Amino acid sequence: MKKRSLALLLAIVMFATVFTGCGSPKSEPAAPEAAKTEEAAKAEPAVKEEPAAPAKNELVVVTSSEPVYFNNLCYSMTNLPDTMVYSQVYDPLFYKDWADGGAVKGYLAESYEISEDGKHISVKLRDNIYFHNGDKLTSEDVKFTFDEMAQRTLGIALLINWESVEIVDELNLVFHLTAPYGAIMNALCSRLGYISSKEYWEEVGGFEGYNAAPVGTGPYKFVSAISGDEVSLVRNDEYWNGKAAFETVKIKTVADVNTAVLAVESGDADVALNLPLESLVNVKNPDVEWAYDLSFECGYMQWNFLPESWVANDTNFRKAVQYGIDKEAINQAVFYGMTNTPDILGDETWTGRPAAGTYDSYSYDLEKAKEYLAASNYDGREFVVYTWAATNLEKAAQVMQASLQQVGINMKIVAVDRASFWDVCRNTNDWDACIHCLGASSLDMDAYNHFMTTMYPQYFNANQVVPYGTELNDLVLAGRLEPNYEKRLEIYTELVNYINNEAISIPLYQEINTALFRTGMKGVQADRAVPINRFFEYTY
């Protein structure tokens, strides 16, 4: 998490362009081993010490979007406000410890061991952990949760090569895969890993009943939800990992950004999460602080690779664009100099990500861009780029448009709503490139799965012909199946070399997450990966 002084922020603003918009120290990801001994794999979440009595007993958190799903076993994808609620009510089986380089550690899991072939994960649960209704957590609950999740949209996306869950006894079980999956432990650390009670699920008749009155093992119990207003939680005084400082929590929906800022400034709220940067950079109230961190969402540009597309058949034009985009100008104009401008997709902490300097790269070079343009077949026509309206993507596109104008490229921005964006990109040839966001709950280079031919219909068009498409598809599959970490690095290095050398896609920036909070609050972090903000860490 990073904090900026007001003076530094004002200095940045003075040098920023007319566009405004929307990390923590980086460390190399811990390389997962093919097999871990039980001792080495011991999960060690620090048992929380009993907090001193806070200045107030109720925590008020504001969010811009209303939480809807209070259980991760919904049939569609949950969003950030949903996760904000259920990560207080439930506990995850595993988590990534960002203070330890993103190492995978057990939470409800006391220990785990991966077989040498990468196809079996033996898990031992902590004993004497109880759901809010008094039921004891057992292997039955974990098996039930993953059996259900494997059939949900989120589970289908993340539980790659998943086969089954075998119960050994009350506290021991084994996850079986049909083949190794290099990102499986990251997937198990994601929002799919929050454990529900099998018996309670059956008692309340499934998801609808569970979502109406959720029960977990987490530090807070669900009390009520008033649509369009607030969600109420109460402290779980019997929580196995220590007692939270605040007795009650209110999560309030405040759609207007200025109202959210004023709520924290006035003391009506304690925390506001993920407000846009432009709403925070000029905050001068000594009663509040704010922090930011790099998100795992990346804004990037993808080409129209339909056979009849002119950009698809002109590598020199694509490379002219690649070298002609001034990413640092995007950083300054849209993110006040606070973000990262990667040359390959993904955060530096993603597992499988090649280290800087080990792959073919490129940087902003106006003269080189002009040379490639001169060698291309570009005839001055409009270069039509679609993006999402009223987002940082549109602001980045405006900066990019100015950069490419210096190269001699006539870029036209078409900013539309998301539904229209996907309709155009999936079903027409009316675009040359598009700019949108890519996120990855796997936190792994397997996020490049949009280059798998089977994924073409989901991301763009089933008929697209990506340069070296067969090679890219095979490399993504090879990286997915390879249990040896060093070999995965080699595979992904070859993959990104193809992409950069042929200008197949162009990452532009990482999004920024923020946290505004009352001065004196401790434990508040800007979201890095979903989920990170667990309110039992908060205190005054």
Question: How would you characterize the overall build of this protein?
Answer:
The chain is an alpha+beta fold. It is 29% helix and 21% strand. It is built from 16 helices and 17 strands. It has helices at residues 6-15, 80-89, 139-149, 153-158, 184-188, 198-204, 207-212, 257-266, 315-324, 327-335, 366-375, 392-407, 418-427, 456-459, 469-481, 485-501; strands spanning 2-3, 58-63, 94-97, 103-106, 109-114, 120-125, 162-169, 172-177, 220-226, 230-235, 248-253, 271-273, 288-303, 382-388, 410-416, 433-438, 505-518. Strands 1, 2, 9, 10, 11, 12, 13, 14, 15, 16 and 17 form an eleven-stranded mixed beta sheet that branches. Strands 5-6-8-7 form a four-stranded antiparallel beta sheet, with helices on one face.
